[in-house]
Amino acid sequence: MPKDSSRDPSSGISRRTLVRAGLGTIAAPAVLRVIPAKAQSRVIKIGHVSPKTGPLAGFGEADEFILAGLEQAFKDGVAIGGKRHPIKLLVKDSQSNPNRAAEVASDLILNGKIDLMLVASTPETTNPVADQCELNEMPCVSSIAPWQPWFFGRGGDPAKGFKWTYHFFWGLEDIIGVFTDLWQTMPTNKKVGALWPNDGDGRAWGDPERGFAPALKKLGFEMVDPGFFKPLLDDFSAQITAFKNAKVEIVTGVLIPPDFTTFWTQARQQGFRPKAVTVGKALLFPRSVEALGAIGEGLTTEVWWSPNHPFKSSLTGASSRDLAAAMTGLPGGAVTFMIVSIVAFVVLGSVLEGIPAIVLFGPLLFPIARQIGIHEVHYSMVVILAMGIGLFAPPFGVGYYAACAIGRVNPDEGMRPIWPYLLALLIGLLVVAAVPWISIGFL
Predict the structure, then answer these.
(1) Most exposed residue of 2, 78, 178, 285, measured as fewest CB within 10 angstroms of its CB?
(2) For the chain, what are the domain ranges?
(3) CATH topology of domain 172-296
(4) How far apart, in Å, are the Cα atoms of 244 and each of 207, 224, 252, 394?
(5) What is 7-167's CATH topology?
(6) What is the pTM of this model?
(7) Quick check: helix, strand or coil at residue 120?
(8) Which of 386, 385, 378 is nearest to 334 (CA)?
(9) What is the mean pLDDT of residues 301-318?
(10) What distances in angstroms separate CA 135 from CA 22, 150, 207, one per listed residue?
């Protein structure tokens, strides 16, 4: 590519200039307020890729909040080279798929004509996007993935590095330190069972030279590694048997939420009860732990930040406590989805039979429930109970009129006494919806 190919002739801004000046102003927003605005120049387009759906959707749960904050911070544009440039964010969903991540990144670069790429959350998203940016000489800033799987997973050479792609996050040395500090607070035989998926994170964490194994050996731990497994595995019996035979008392790994739910459920069923279970990725988000119900008690993971962390945003000045208060004040999430589902299936139960309702709306709603961390069995129980209430709820419930016909009761006369019964059922439904353990505690 020619030397000046990254320069926009209409604005005099090169991609390198944008990285040096534009990101500098992002890091120091006070500069934006003191530089006088001049004539509006061309729009600077920033691409953003993250997993909003699929098994990694938990990582993208806060994206809407974060992007809204960016839009607010950049509402007046940024000043670069004495000119003020409006900012436009172009957002894409990787769908938790590396191929999809590469595809949308290429589209943003070639068709969206972006000036800067932002990408976040696990090597399955950051790496393919960064590779596309390196190939097309597009500045890229990535995060939310340990630096080892990002760098070495892309074939990085420490002597050369990368030219167009930049990454900031902690590394495996930090998480190993956190995990082992935790394990050393309790008496164990120091035998650690490892669960490494055959993905970017798993290959880095399980690397025999740079991963967990050499670090654990130095600290006197013995790692039991059954080998890499394919993500979305439906049977962990081989791993569980290996751990039981080796008398493992600590389990670690870096699993997506569906895989950990499968492993931990089967481990309980097969009588495997380690003293400590500390895994990355799967337990990072409340909804993933809540979906486990009672069997989620006592599990551990690393904490990236809390309301008490003494940090502030360099962009907005908001403290960790400010961010926590703003995020917890937002509506939506699993609770709202569950409430809407209950109302919808009560209505559907009234006007349709159960099977047609499930056939029509199950393929739409069940994937959404899975993506936001609601266990499928828990959601199924709620749906069935809601439709059952709707079936006997006047004035449309088909089951109500069938019952009146069988009992030879006038439907108008039966409406008043049935309401207390339906109210009791509704209370029971709400309890089942609010307490996942009732549905999945014995799985």
Answers:
(1) 2
(2) 7-167, 172-296, 334-440
(3) Rossmann fold (3.40.50)
(4) 23, 10, 14, 55
(5) Rossmann fold (3.40.50)
(6) 0.68
(7) strand
(8) 378
(9) 81
(10) 22, 16, 26
